[in-house]
């Protein structure tokens, strides 16, 4: 592909990403892969160059742009601008006064809603390319013995189970992965599991388990604990069984019906030592992995997510035994999804006690702690722990 053809391909892909974010469709990575499956003529260098252009534009523009062309022009790169020359397979020539997207890191409406701890000096880190983190399955080994299998790995600073690798590392074909010795999991996500304090004999409910990443970490911490992974999403929850088999973990699963969760969890009322609510959220803490997430989020969608988080906390509290713990987490750096949600919970449950999460790192964001890419080199997470009255 010529340089101009690469720019045109990036524009076409950006148009697909824009449409997908508007309709809550496929993620950008999947769209890029699909695009090149039907364009076999593009070599590996072409695919890499186009992908870099696409994500460079996505990271540069906070608000969803009007078009891929407007997004590409927003980069204000003379080399890119020179490709708008009307050559075959390239973008049409520039038109005086044509629309150019605004280059800014975050949507304007988001900026005042961030946690007070996330100042503008940290915003670039929210969009830097993230490393690949592995969690060592401590039920089967330790990271010091497994680390040599990954020569480029460094030990994570905060998680005792983590290895950090370059972002483009391929590990799914390695023996360590296929034999269940490691799982892909961000260091911040590992710390959420650590905050649960899993021990043998406990009953632990992972209320929003998804594909089971944290349930697997909990099972590795305490193989003799009873871990119940719940979710309303059948497709995501179905991914847990093969992962648990690979890791040698025993985890119960419950597929819940939306709106009937309390009824389906009634047998666990007052019995759980720990309930983990890793709630659906804006994903603002993972924008460095999915930067087009900024284009998906709207004030209305955020309001729905905050309401859902509130509902899930209300659903979780009755499951906790007297003296047990409720751990609330979101992969978000937005105040309303983190500290605001935690304060609201304590306001409604005055006999519960906020406790310091059991991990190092992060900053106090009462009543919990906030991890951020700029401060902790993890994804952004809010974590709070609440003890039920005895």
Quick take:
This protein is of the alpha/beta class and 390 residues long. Helices cover 35% and strands 16% of the residues.
Description of the structure:
It contains 16 helices and 13 strands. The chain is of the alpha/beta class. The protein has 3 domains: 79 residues; 53 residues, Sun protein, domain 3 (Alpha-Beta Plaits, 2-Layer Sandwich), CATH 3.30.70; 200 residues, Rossmann fold (3-Layer(aba) Sandwich). The strands form 2 sheets. Strands 5, 6, 7, 8, 9, 10, 11, 12 and 13 form a 9-stranded mixed sheet that branches. A 4-stranded antiparallel sheet has the order 2-3-1-4. Helix 1 packs across helix 2, helix 1 crosses helix 3 and helix 8 packs across helix 9. The chain is globular, with a radius of gyration of 22 Å. It starts with a helix and ends with a strand. The model has no long low-confidence stretch (mean pLDDT 96).
List keywords for this structure.
4-stranded antiparallel β-sheet; 9-stranded mixed β-sheet; alpha/beta; 16 helices; Alpha-Beta Plaits; 13 strands
Beta-strand percentage? 15-25%
**Residue-averaged pLDDT, rounded?**
96
Number of strands: 13
- Shape annotation: globular
Q: What is the name of the CATH superfamily of the largest domain?
A: Vaccinia Virus protein VP39
Count of runs of 4 or more consecutive helical residues: 16
Q: Tally the structural domains.
A: 3
SSE ordering: HHHHHEHEEHEHEHEHHEHEHHEHEEEHE
Given as residue ranges, the uncertain stretches (5+ residues, pLDDT < 50) are none
Bin the helical content.
25-40%
Shape-level CATH architecture of the largest domain: 3-Layer(aba) Sandwich
Strand pairing plus helix content: what structural class?
alpha/beta
- Largest β-sheet summary: 9 strands, mixed
The Cα radius of gyration reads: 22 Å
